[in-house]
Design a protein that fits this description.
Blueprint (H helix, E strand, L loop, with lengths): L5 E2 L13 E4 L2 E4 L8 H32 L5 H22 L1 H48 L8 H8 L3 E4 L11 E6 L2 E4 H9 L2 H4 L27 H4 L2 H10 L1 H10 L9
Antiparallel strand pairs: 1-3, 2-3, 4-5, 5-6
């Protein structure tokens, strides 16, 4: 599962990975140096660099293996060293005892282990960068899609509900060379994130998060109370127990998201 780039509660992250986060605003974010460039662009460049290093290591290992295979099971350099150190009689003795092949196999195994140990950290770094890039692309697409459409006080709750619906395609590159992109896949249809958000806001679940149009009183279907500026207020932030109970009875999933947005936990049903 990809690590989220931003998170409100550090307890939601595995204890072994909490050291990767630093406090940021009202929550936490991954401690990553992104510079002044666009997050996704910076991560993509770093990912490509790591892939290039890993590819070079694999090519190096392949070249060594081909060189060894050219001599079958015998390493000529190793045999020469043994001949010089032990003389031909000693080497013949090792051959007779079946130990020379054992020594060569052990040397090859040691070399292969060292190569694997050198490549593994790069593979882990690539995996981590892929997770970071996925999280950044999803969050960027969501932020752009809900901006101006979701009430300000409900943005985090809406993102929490929508984040799992989005996937990133092209993260490992493709034949067409297209850049990675966040999309929503429904059945066989691939939708732009913005289009999916518009459809979701028209549903019974999403309408409660929609930003009020104009200054007219009254809320959208399933919404909470409206403030003076027309934005939907989160009753868990205003401690409106009556509205909390109404929303919980109508849509417990939405109530859970609103409570989490206010830094609270919805009690388990009796």
């Amino acid at each position: 599962m990809p690590l989220p780039f931003r998170i409100d509660d550090l307890e939601k992250i595995d204890e072994a990975q909490r050291g990767l986060y630093v406090e940021h605003g009202d929550g936490w974010k991954l401690d990553v140096e992104l510079g002044d460039q666009d997050d996704s662009g910076k991560l993509k460049k770093a990912l490509e660099a790591q892939r290039a290093e890993a590819k070079a290591e694999r090519q190096k290992r392949h070249a060594i293996e081909e060189r060894l295979n050219a001599f079958g099971d015998v390493d000529p350099d190793r045999v020469k060293a043994l001949l010089e150190a032990e003389e031909k009689k000693t080497v013949d003795g090792l051959k007779d005892e079946g130990k020379l092949s054992e020594l060569l196999d052990k040397r090859d195994a040691t070399h292969a282990k060292k190569l694997a140990e050198a490549i593994e950290p790069r593979d882990q770094r690539i995996s981590w960068l892929e997770q970071m890039l996925t999280t950044t692309l999803v969050d960027n697409a969501l932020h752009a899609s809900i901006n101006g459409k979701v009430a300000d006080g409900l943005r985090r709750g809406a993102m929490a509900l929508l984040r799992d619906k989005i996937e990133v395609r092209g993260i490992n590159g493709g034949d067409d060379g297209d850049a990675p992109k966040a999309v929503v896949v429904q059945d066989d249809d691939v939708l732009e994130v913005g289009k999916y958000v518009d459809i979701w806001l028209a549903t019974e679940e999403g309408s409660g998060y929609a930003k009020a149009r104009g200054d007219a009183g009254g809320g959208a279907p399933g919404s909470g109370q409206r403030g003076m500026n027309g934005a939907t207020e989160n009753p868990w932030k205003t401690n409106n127990l009556t509205e909390q109970m109404r929303i919980t009875r109508a849509d417990r999933r939405r109530a859970t998201a609103l409570a989490a947005e206010a830094g609270k936990v919805l009690p388990a049903p009796l």
